[in-house]
């Protein structure tokens, strides 16, 4: 829908985003979401913990979030702040990169008749348990200043309750 705006409408939208950026003003409606619970495959629908919440937010907010994410990723990549083996959520990378690296290590260990130990772990509800202030502090420690951390805080610490629909 936004892609099909006229040139004038796109310019007005750009001015709107620039004003939000300069004034650090966030429309309160953008902190609201409609939560749609989706049943996890093969799970009992009677158990509420078997649902994955999907948050529907305003498309203008999603566009701003995408712009903020691109700025953050550019900053992190340009400053080499991400570990080389981190592949998730990086442009041009995928978890297959990690699988190929593991396969290479296995082959080398086999050829050299050495042992290889691999440890894998999955943190249950990792996103829900994330210490958001700690992430902001880490970004500050990496030198991130200005409006970017302010906007990241806006997107990671919702202050207005969401509505649920079933």
Automatic annotation (TrEMBL):
SUPFAM superfamilies: DNA/RNA polymerases. Residues 45-147 form the Reverse transcriptase domain. One of its GO terms (molecular function) is RNA-directed DNA polymerase activity. Pfam families: RVT_1 (PF00078). InterPro entries: DNA/RNA_pol_sf (IPR043502), RT_dom (IPR000477). Coiled coil: none annotated. Keywords: Nucleotidyltransferase, RNA-directed DNA polymerase, Transferase. This is Putative RNA-directed DNA polymerase from transposon X-element. It comes from Araneus ventricosus. The lineage of its organism: Eukaryota, Metazoa, Ecdysozoa, Arthropoda, Chelicerata. The gene is X-elementORF2_357.
């Amino acid at each position: 829908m936004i892609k099909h705006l006229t040139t004038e409408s796109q310019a007005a939208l750009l001015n709107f985003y620039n004003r939000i950026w300069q004034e650090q003003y966030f429309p309160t409606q953008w902190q609201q979401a409609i939560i749609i619970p989706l049943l996890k495959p093969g799970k009992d629908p009677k158990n509420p913990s078997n649902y994955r919440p999907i948050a529907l937010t305003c498309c203008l907010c999603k566009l701003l979030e995408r712009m903020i994410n691109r700025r953050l990723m550019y900053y992190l990549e340009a400053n080499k702040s991400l570990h080389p083996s981190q592949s998730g959520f990086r442009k041009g990378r995928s978890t297959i990169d990690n699988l190929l690296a593991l396969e290479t290590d296995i082959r080398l260990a086999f050829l050299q008749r050495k042992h290889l130990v691999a440890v894998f772990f999955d943190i249950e509800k990792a996103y829900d348990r994330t210490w958001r202030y700690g992430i902001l502090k880490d970004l500050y420690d990496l030198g991130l200043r200005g409006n970017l951390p302010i906007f990241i805080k806006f997107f990671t610490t919702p202050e207005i309750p969401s509505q649920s629909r079933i």
